[in-house]
Fold this sequence. Notes:
This protein is an alpha+beta fold. It has three domains: 32-150, Nuclear Transport Factor 2, Chain: A; 157-228, no CATH class; 233-527, 3-Layer(aba) Sandwich (Beta-lactamase). It is 30% helix and 24% strand. It has 16 helices and 23 strands. The protein has helices spanning 2-13, 36-48, 52-57, 62-76, 184-194, 197-200, 233-245, 276-279, 289-299, 333-339, 342-350, 356-362, 388-395, 405-417, 446-462, 517-527; strands spanning 80-88, 97-107, 113-125, 128-131, 147-150, 157-160, 166-169, 202-206, 212-218, 227-228, 250-255, 262-267, 307-310, 313-316, 319-322, 328-332, 369-371, 380-381, 402-403, 436-439, 475-481, 492-499, 502-508. The strands form eight sheets. A five-stranded antiparallel sheet has the order 12-11-23-22-21, sandwiched between helices. Strands 1-2-3-4 form a four-stranded antiparallel sheet, covered by helices on one side. Strands 5-8-9 form a three-stranded antiparallel sheet.
Amino acid sequence: MVAIVVVAVLLLSGGSAPQVAAAGDAGAGQAAVKGPTEVATEYLKAFSDNYVSGAATDTDDPAAATTALAGVRESLHPKKVLATLTQVAPTAAGGTKTTGTFSVTWTLAAGEDWTYDNTLELVQSSRKWLVHWTPALLHPKLEAGQRMLLGTPSAHDAVLDRDGKPLVTSALTPVEGNPAPLLQSALSQVASQNASPDAALSVIRVDNTSKQLDTLFGKDGSEIKPLTSSLSVKAQNAAQAAVDKAKGSTMLVAISPSTGDILAVAQNAAAGNSPKALSGQYAPGSTFKIVTATAALEQSGVTANTVLECPGTAQIGQRTISNAGFEKPPIPLHSAFAFSCNTTFGKLASDLAPDGLQKAADQYGLNADFDIPGIATETGRVDPDGTKTEQVEDGIGQGTVQVSPFGAALMAATVAAGKAVTPKLWHGTDTAMATAVKTKYSGPPAAVVGALRPMMREVVTGGTATALKGSGAVSGKTGTAQTSDSDPSKANGWFVGFRGDVAFAVLMEGANTSSLALPVTADFLAGL
């Protein structure tokens, strides 16, 4: 009767009648109580939607939750957050606590997804279910006074040399002194692929003083493993100092015969910025007598001790060949090699088959092709000869044959190793960093190498490179090559050789003599 009177009064006064609670509801005049699963779902949706006040209201500490939820968004700048409830444990009759599990995926600024699982606790207070607030709701490792931040990559080395010395920094800039200026762009380019912005993205955990405690996601700078190059800072410094000291365009390439490591690539300012040391094509001059001697030893039945003519001038077919102002009585092949008798080697070349020099050159990689990450290389080009005149000229490195300083260093490395050498710029097991052999080659026979090594040593001990006697057990070959220019004073000067496990080639453009390449070689070897 009382209820009927109250409703009648309200209707007459223009009010609305309150809902009468159904059985099992919270009671007359109260909304239905939300269960723990509903509250957990509501909290996670509000958190995902960046509805900070709504999510905080679903917790038992709205003030602390508001500060933390707003702060983590400001710190991580996510593109998107998705928190999904996995389950909520059943509540025992009369129980006031339960737990649940959920997963969180943060889509960070670089498009990187970070996903992890977490837990939450629900408590009932005044018959109302709430999510118990704790910093661990943001990440299971977070404790009071801690927060999450985007990590700033710390300084680290991006590229090391073969001995662990730094070449390129994390900023993709050279280390102090820039030991490999010609290769700086190549090293930085490959390093950038290893340490892209995505790779450096991280989320870190810090304390209330902002001290980093650990990395929760991604890599910080200290965790990015640097690349290891085949270069040697010591060899590179020695090479660069040697070419910088020289007058005129000078370049030097050094390779380890035992490993194929490219140890150094250097050019001076006069040579320009284009990496001619790696891909420039030049007439090799008498350094090509390494190939001609190999062809003769293999194909013509001569030995290192076969006595041959070495006149000052010789008419060979339609070509007149001259030595560099000297003549010798008949001498063994090894002496003709040491003195660099053009007339001897022109005659040896003329007696070969048209593809004789090409077959020998193939055994030193002068027609090989390599794909080395970061750099473009050309070893050279030696084709079958079309005429006897071409054959004679090619036999002394003056015809159509072309060789780069890189190819000449590979030729010397092949003699030193006694087998084919695959040049490389990178160490490690990552196949993407390995040299791809596009056109392979096989080294010369052991008997040829056994004869050729003493001949190259004799060049230094008693031939055209005696200026290197004080540089240790150096073996090699000098070469002077006329260019296409009609001015003979612009001939290029070469020295190609090896000492121990370092093979190298020095080229001086327009030097007009190989003798100027010898002090460059001596300076380089002294720097080692």
